Structures are given as structure tokens and as C-alpha cells.
Amino acid sequence: MDTKTGIRTEKEKMLAGELYCSKGEELMGERARADRILKLYNATFVKDTERRKELLGELLGSVGENAYIEPNFFCDYGYNIKVGDNFFANYECIILDVCEVKIGSDVLLGPRVSIFTACHPLDPETRRSGLEYGRPVEIGDNIWIGGNSVINPGVKIGRNAVIGSGSVVTKDIPENCVAVGNPCRVIRRLEA
To answer: Which residues are CB-contacts of 142 (< 8 A; sequence separation ≥ 6)?
Structure first.
């Protein structure tokens, strides 16, 4: 917040899930920073494990032990992404992190999993103005999300859940279940 005017910055509005403009100098600079790190990360080779670990540590908000993301990986800012221990994301993971994306430990993401926190207004005039907002995503521990799945803004997935390939998760998924489809629905309960 600007101490003289009391006006909140666009970044503060973004992180609070309020309407904000992403075209300001601060946010564009932070996306450019993430883009630079992602280009370096995505250009690494399999044998560059230490370099990859270093770059993920620089990019993400927090990284657990043995966390690994297979290149190519894409995100907006990086610092809003927090991953736990033994996290694995396969090829072409996309995380639009205008709000926090909290991923627990022992989480597996198949290829081309997309996690979105970014939203655009339904009102056409507001949408044309360029304003947008976000909703955080939370993924619990011990979860497997199949390839080509999409996790929409504001969703929480409970621990031990399995999300079938190609699912579009539009609502919260409880723990200890298998959920599939578009929209994603629980089809089976798992023993805890």
C-alpha cells in the first residue's frame, strides 16, 4: 500500500483475489523474472539435477524435499506456488498462479496438467477493461492427478484423492475418493 495515498497496489489486489490490472510495471516485471527463470529451467538437461533444484528454489514460493518438475514447465509468477515433499509434475505442466497454489506432499501430476487461479469477469464491460482476479487452489497430500486434467480457480482437492485423466475439476473434491469427468465427479470412495 502506498503510505502517502493509502492506495493498494495492483499486486496487493491480485494476491487478495480482488479485481486488478496485470499490465502495471511491478507485475509485468515479476512475470518477466519468472519467464527468465523458466527459460533457463526448460533449457536444462536430465543430468542437470542440481541446477534444476536451484532454479525451482529461485522461482517457487517454497519447494519441499525431492520435488521435481519435468520440463517444459510454465507459470505466471512462481512465488505463489508452494509444493511439498516428493512432489512430481510431468511434462508441460501449466500453473497460472495469480493467487496461491498450495500443493501438499507426495502429489503426482500427469503430463499436461493445468492448474488455474486466474479468472476473468463475466460482465463484458469489466472484462474489456482488462481487469481480472484470482482464486487460490489447494491440493492436499498423497494425490494423483491424471494427464490433461484441468484444476479450475478456487478448487480444493482433499488428501488421498485420485483425479482421472482428462478431468475438469470445477468444484472441491473430498478426500479419499476417485473423481473423473467433465465436470469432475466422485465415482468411488477409497478406504482411508
So the answer is: 104, 105, 106, 107, 159, 160
pLDDT digits (tens, 9 = 90+) for 119-178: 999 999 999 999 999 999 999 999 999 999 999 999 999 999 999 999 999 999 999 999
CATH number of the domain bearing residue 97:
2.160.10.10
Domains of the chain: total: 1
Catalytic choice (21, 26, 54, 120): 120
Range of the domain at 184: 10-189
Is 80 known to be catalytic? no
- pLDDT single digits (tens) 20-79: 999 999 999 999 999 999 999 999 999 999 999 999 999 999 999 999 999 999 999 999
